Amino acid sequence: MMKKSITLSLALACFTVPKIRAQEHRFDPPWNNPPESALNFTVPGIDNIPDLYGDIENPQLTVFFAGNQFMVVDDLLTSFKKEYPQYERIFVETLPPGILAKQIKGGSITIGNLRITHQPDIYTASKRAINEMADYFSHTQTYCYNNICLMVPQGNPANIKTLNDLGNSNVRISMPNPQWEGIGEQIKASYKKAGGEQLVKKIMEDKVKDGSTYLTKIHHRESPMRILYSQADVAPVWTSEVVYQKLIGHPVEGIAIPGAQNTTATYVAAKLKNAPHAQAADDFLKFMDSPTAKQIYKKYGFTID
Question: pTM value?
Answer without folding.
Answer: 0.88
